[in-house]
Amino acid sequence: MTTSLANRFYEFSNSAIVWHEVENKLKFREIEHLLCDHLKMKDYSNEVKEYFFLFVVSYKLTYQISHFFNKKKGVLWHGLALDYAKFEAANLEEALQMQAELYLQGIKDIPKIRGMKKIAFDWERFYADAKNLFEKQTWIKKEIITQISV
């Protein structure tokens, strides 16, 4: 049986705010599908049902992004920003690596997110599993210093 994407529940969902000049480099859906196909949120937490990550590509790294855990819905909201100039200058491979690194940085930030202090969440395992998937896809090769904001 096939489920349409419109009806599919994503435990790992992503979105983006980006200038149209660089939107062709944004591959957040590929990251989302890879994680949904290979990871299960229940392996990291019984309380968090969905991790929503927002990719922002901005001239101002002080872009205000909300970070919080909605306990009632079980949704963890988080987002980080990439520097527009660096992202624009990157080739497609480097841009994907920057996004993968930003996502991993977001996982490391989970314990600091409002509402997560008392929530059992194995972020270290989630980080290791996501990093392993990204490495298998060769999305992470050499270290690129990714400018981020929290």
The radius of gyration is 15 Å
Our measurement of the CA-to-CA distance between the termini, rounded to an integer number of angstroms, reads 41 Å
Q: What number of structural domains do the residues give?
A: 1
Strand content: 15-25%
* Count of strand segments: 4
- Major sheet attributes: 4 strands, mixed
Overview of the molecule:
- With about 150 residues, the chain is of the alpha/beta class.
- The protein has one domain (about 10-135).
- Helix content is about 35%, strand content about 20%.
- The protein is built from four helices and four strands; from the N terminus they run βαβββααα.
- The chain has helices at about 30-40, 85-90, 90-110, 125-135; strands spanning about 10-15, 50-60, 70, 75-85.
- A four-stranded mixed sheet has the order 1-2-4-3.
- A hairpin with a 4-residue loop joins strand 3 and strand 4 (about 75-85).
- Helix 3 (about 90-110) runs antiparallel to helix 4 (about 125-135).
- The protein starts with 11 loop residues before the first strand and ends in a 14-residue tail after the last helix.
- Mean pLDDT is about 85; it is low at about 1-10.
Helices and strands, with pairings:
Elements: E1 12-17, H1 28-38, E2 50-58, E3 68-70, E4 75-83, H2 84-89, H3 92-109, H4 123-136
Parallel strand pairs: 1-2, 2-4
Antiparallel strand pairs: 3-4
